[in-house]
Design goal:
Layout: E1 3-9, E2 17-24, E3 27-35, H1 47-51, H2 55-62, E4 74-75, H3 91-103, H4 116-126, E5 138-141, H5 143-155, E6 161-166, H6 171-178, E7 182-189, E8 195-196, H7 198-203, E9 209-215, H8 227-240, E10 244-247, E11 272-277, E12 290-295, H9 302-313, H10 321-333, H11 336-358, E13 363-366, E14 373-379, H12 389-400, E15 402-403, E16 405-406, H13 408-411, H14 438-450, E17 455-461
Helix pairs in contact: 3-10, 4-10, 5-6, 5-9, 11-14
């Protein structure tokens, strides 16, 4: 067997010298002296970690304010329906998980895209003639957040851009920037119930645009797009040959006077990755069960996108197997009255919030049509002691111990040159005054009656 000897010479501050001798078939050969580096610790955070930025945490963590010690804290800053215990999931849902756990059949690894039977269950639940689905069109994920992450990762490369709603869910920006993907923000119009400004949207498309994110029903606006508006969005995507990432986690969580239309049911030629999950409709966000539905009837994605999703899913080997085992029963045996009761509570709270806040001079809520959110515009000329929505929410905490989320975190970037309601969340000059007692008290009273079901996002309006 061949052998070699490495002798290290050097001392003090001088770089060590490696004297290498190779012994082959009994003969010794000197390879000479080679300078080696002096080992030293140089551990640094990755560029990806440095690029990862959560606007919600940045705003919330920067708030240096304590709640009123005389009043119990009411936190309306997270879209978690389980926080206050007044919206439990259905017994059928929990029993399904209990039986799977007791069976001992789902304790091992599953395929990274999910068990075949579970993918079949999801496909059967969402399949319809307008948007047919099979098991191969379903990728199971660790919550809807991972579904969005995988969809972004498979569609966009570093240096490309994606189109994101403003106001919108801050996670889109957090994920994109960590991947080196540019975020372009298209405006939503509060005066049109948060419809997309389609001209603005289309003006943002260029040769580097990788996908369009459409969030319907909306977080944080609580809006639900009409069929005709969705068709106009699809027309833009079709003209520009831009695929759609549809965040539909609040699908079917709409009030009785509205109808939810899955965007994939309205187009045969625009390829769509639809992201959803159990979190909201079944009121179990901590169970981390989501999915991607691949709609590609023109075979534009082809095998490349499907294979890419498979490879990306293999990084964490799929979602919780216990919940996967219960998925078919959860989807197909949860009673309809459970969904109806949940929506009734949300609608009642939405109506109460809207009516009470509408009566307060200087606050202009936009009536929600679904989901779990209500956006409130602050007309800052009424509140001169506050400079922006962040200061308003800070005072709400310190006086009334009610924590709402300032809309600044949902806007993520300013809109240069915009005016009116399009500039929600921008830093303002010449704001005007909030009487420090009663009006905040009314907001607090509304929040308490709602018992934490609603996230109130407040926003400042530019006065021009």
């Amino acid at each position: 067997m061949d052998s070699y000897l490495i002798q290290v010479n050097g001392h003090g501050d001088h770089a060590p010298v490696l004297d290498v001798h190779l012994k082959t078939n009994g003969n010794s050969i000197s390879l000479g002296k080679v300078k080696g580096r002096k080992p030293r610790w140089a551990v640094r955070a990755s560029e990806m970690s440095k690029k990862t930025f959560n606007p919600v945490r940045a705003i919330v963590d920067s708030m240096k304010v304590e709640p009123n010690p005389k009043k119990a804290m009411i936190s309306l800053s997270l879209g978690d329906p389980t926080v206050f215990g007044n919206l439990p999931t259905n017994d059928e849902v929990t029993q399904a998980v209990k039986e799977v756990l007791d069976s001992g059949r789902y304790n091992g690894y599953a395929p990274s895209v999910g068990y075949q039977s579970c993918r079949e269950a999801v496909a059967a639940y969402y399949n319809c003639p307008e948007a047919p689905l099979e098991a191969q069109d379903v990728i199971l994920t660790s919550g809807c957040s991972q579904a969005i992450e995988l969809a972004l990762a498979v569609l966009a490369n570093p240096g490309q851009n994606i189109l994101v709603p403003r106001p919108g869910f801050s996670l889109y920006k957090t994920l994109a920037l960590s991947m080196g993907i540019e975020v372009k923000l298209y405006n939503l119009l509060p005066e049109k119930a948060w419809e997309i400004d389609l001209k603005h949207l289309e003006s943002l498309v260029d040769e580097k645009t990788a996908c369009l994110i459409v969030n319907n029903p909306s977080n944080p606006c609580g809006s639900v797009f009409s069929k005709s508006h969705l068709q106009k969005i699809l027309a833009v995507a079709s003209r520009q040959c831009v695929p759609i990432l549809a965040d539909e986690i609040y699908g079917d969580m709409v009030f009785a006077d509205c109808k939810y239309e899955p965007i994939a049911t309205l187009s045969t030629n625009v390829p769509i990755l639809s992201c959803g999950g159990l979190a909201k409709r079944w009121l179990v966000p901590g169970w981390r069960m989501g999915w991607i539905l691949i709609h590609d009837r023109r075979d534009i994605f082809g095998n490349e996108i499907r294979d890419g999703l498979l490879r990306l899913s293999q990084r964490i080997l799929g979602p919780c197997t216990i919940v996967q085992g219960a998925l078919e029963r959860i989807l197909h045996r949860t009673p309809p009255e459970f969904y109806h009761n949940t929506l009734s509570i949300l609608k009642s709270n939405a109506d109460l919030c809207y009516a009470a806040l509408s009566a307060i001079p200087g606050l202009q809520p936009v009536r929600p049509a679904g989901a779990m959110y209500l956006m409130v515009e602050i007309e800052m000329e009424h509140f001169p002691e506050f400079e922006n929505d962040v200061e308003f929410t800070e005072r709400l905490i310190s006086e009334q111990s009610v924590f709402c989320l300032p809309a600044t975190v949902s806007l993520t970037l300013k809109a240069p040159g915009t005016c009116g309601a399009k500039a929600w969340g921008e830093k303002q000059q010449g704001f005007a005054a909030l009487s420090s007692g009663d009006r905040l008290g009314v907001v607090c009273a509304v929040s308490m009656v709602c018992n934490g079901v609603y996230v109130l996002a407040v926003s400042s309006k530019r006065c021009v």
